[in-house]
Amino acid sequence: MSQTVVIGEADLTFGDVVAVAREGARVELSQTALKALAEGRALVDRLAAAPTPAYGISTGFGALATRHIDPELRAQLQRSLIRSHAAGMGPLVEPEVIRALTLMRLKTLATGHTGVRPVVAETMAALLNAGIVPAVREFGSLGCSGDLAPLSHVALVLMGEGEVVGPDGVTAIPAGPVLAQHGIAAVELAPKEGLALINGTDGMLGMLILALRDLSDLVKAADIAAAMSVEALLGTDKVFRPELHAIRPHPGQAASAANLLSVLHGSPIMESHREPNECTRVQDAYSLRCAPQVSGAVRDTMAHAATVAERELAAIVDNPVVLLADGRVESNGNFHGAPVAMVLDFLAIAAADLGSIAERRTDRMLDVARSHGLPPFLADDPGVDSGLMIAQYTQAALVSENKRLAVPASVDSIPSSAMQEDHVSMGWSAARKLRTAVDNLRRIIAVELVTAARALDLRAPLAPAEGTGAAVRALRDAGVGGPGPDRFLSPELRAAEDALRSGAVVAAVEAAVGPLN
């Protein structure tokens, strides 16, 4: 039986978001949430009936907020808002992102502070539980006044209009028949409900949480790959000892160094060159020696980003917002995505640097002048065979792409809505490029793993450590071959990428050495 996430009791967790977005967990509105929804709606109904204008309830939106809307036109106002704002273009956004942003918006609706009727939240929950994914396009959000276009595409589906993702997962089909097939009635939006459905940072927040989940696996994999490279290059593990990291007390650095020591523990390859007369090098290159410092900085950046995400997950983002305690509806600027946008950009920088140092280790293993006895490009018959030469080209292309993606989006702004919205966050754009950067980082680490595994095999008859040996075996089980004549390499690189995505490599190493940080 799949997990059920209850909305309106305890705070949502990152695990809840991942479960709904990726694992198809069901959602359920608690009685507390339904009571809050009813209270918030009663307040909105009173304001809608009052002669005093209330933004988004009895007025237009944005630069058109000065127009008072007659009561008989207010249902049309809501329909017009959603239809006009569902203006996205470009490729379809991934279903997991749409499920995450839908959950984020539902979480905020369920507080009662947005003033929507219970039926609106219940219908949104029904979409999630039926596996109906609104078709949302790549471009349309400036990350301010909420992720307006993406959320409008979701709201349009609640109205029985617009498009949903078809059974093939790649094409858009009309929403109305799909809702009817699942017995879900379309909602006719009442005053304020259209605005409440679209005025949030839900898309960028959902993508931030998913990226943090992926990066939590990749930093472990990066430490494993670094340990394999250090071992294959006859480096030393002495620089990872805890006393050296205690004197520079960054928590991420200490965690990464501890991982490297654990994965390298008991390595016969290491033991083969520990004595002074067996090793002529004074210090390893930075890409080996400083691996914990770089990976650790990534971990600390992730910790900061997670703090921001936790705060945003606890937030109520809408404008105007219903203040239930004192019966007011007030305008505010909480929809501005700057806090989320900045950490999304920060994580893109972290991903770029972690990939950059991994590529330097790969290149070192392939260079006969720096690999300490390994054959050129780890080829079987150098000159006849090219070995892993072009795998490093692929890795270098990915590293270069991530450097471009590290250019921040959050420092950009472009005015909109006739200069009413004159400073925007570009947080959606920051989130979109981070997703690409994370996927690229996984491929970069996969190339280092393939290279280091082959290099370790070439150190035979010396054996690797238990931890690094487990990683090699996991790759071989996944379909990554060992040393030998040249062969079609792309499938093996993709197999390594898949082994990272599934968690097989990290799981194999942890089974051998215990949990990693």
UniProtKB/TrEMBL annotation:
| Highest taxon of source | Bacteria
InterPro entries with a match to the protein in the record: Aromatic_Lyase, Fumarase/histidase_N, HutH, L-Aspartase-like, Phe/His_NH3-lyase_AS
Entries under Pfam families matching the protein: Lyase_aromatic
Predominant location category: cytoplasm
Q: Does the keyword Coiled coil apply?
A: no
Query: What is this enzyme's catalytic activity, as reactions?
Result: L-histidine = trans-urocanate + NH4(+)
Question: Cross-link 5-imidazolinone (Ala-Gly): which residues?
Answer: 144-146
For this UniProt record, the keywords arranged alphabetically read as follows: Cytoplasm, Histidine metabolism, Lyase
Q: Which residues form a coiled coil?
A: none
Q: What is this protein called?
A: Histidine ammonia-lyase
**Organism source for this protein?**
Catenulispora subtropica
Known pathway: Amino-acid degradation; L-histidine degradation into L-glutamate; N-formimidoyl-L-glutamate from L-histidine: step 1/3
Query: What does the PTM comment state?
Result: Contains an active site 4-methylidene-imidazol-5-one (MIO), which is formed autocatalytically by cyclization and dehydration of residues Cys-Ser-Gly.
Tell me where in or outside the cell this protein is found: Cytoplasm
Entry keyword annotation includes Cytoplasm: yes
Please tell me which top-level EC class this enzyme sits in.
Answer: lyase
List modified residues, type 2,3-didehydroalanine (Ser). 145
What are its E.C. numbers?
A: 4.3.1.3
Q: Identify its protein family.
A: Belongs to the PAL/histidase family.
